[in-house]
Amino acid sequence: MDELVKQVVEKTGISESQARTAVETVVGFLKDRLPAPIAGQVDNALGAAGGAVGTIADKAGDVLGGLGGMLGGKTD
What angle do CA 38, 53, 51 make, to 5 degrees? Predict the structure, then answer.
C-alpha cells in the first residue's frame, strides 16, 4: 500500500497523510462491495511486491492526479 500512497502523493501533490487516507478509503470501499473471495485478494494485491502493485498504483495515481488538478493540486 505504501507504493500506492507514494504514487498518489506524486500525482496529486497532496500530503502523505491525505494520500494514505484516500487510499484507505478507496480500498475499504472496494472491499465492502466486491464479492468476498475477490475482496480477500485486495490486501494481497496491495501487499505484493512488483508488477501488480505498480500497475494498480499507476492507474490509481493517474485517476487521482486528475482529481488533484481539478482541486488545485499538482498537475503534470
Answer: 110
